[in-house]
Amino acid sequence: MQTAxxxxxxxxxxxxxxxxxxxxxxxxxxxRAVHGDEAVFDVEPTGEIERxxxxxxxxxxxxxxxxxxxxxxxxxxxxxxxxxxARVYESFDELELDESFFKAKTRVTANSAVEPVPSAQEKPxxxxxxxxxxxxxxxxxxxxxxxxxxxxxxMTDTNSAFS
Length: 163
Prior knowledge:
Layout: E1 2-9, E2 17-24, H1 25-35, E3 40-48, H2 53-63, H3 76-80, H4 92-95
Antiparallel strand pairs: 1-2, 1-3
């Protein structure tokens, strides 16, 4: 049986989320039935364990004995896997989960969508455009205007009120 680490939104409330480790595919199906279809997310498959259908069904019956389907009084394990020798989900492929429920391998960053711009040395010669007409002359900075005397003198330390 395939196992995974998951995040579980208790009662479907994403503000009340817990991690669960080593969860089987059958347990994910059960948790979705109890907490809602969107409650299980960030599914990260971790490996395989040797467990028979009967052993997994027994484990689920013990661990989730009091669990009921959303909005009903029906026992979740009995409703999802009816019968004493019921077959349980063995892999996450069998659950047919949308890929959005699986954990992302990478995150998008602000710079990930930007393609690197080649430097002037890396650009091929044929991509340069020919100049048209004459080049403009460089602008000459204008001289700074002379300040007029406003009759106000600079204050010295001897004239200061704080000395």
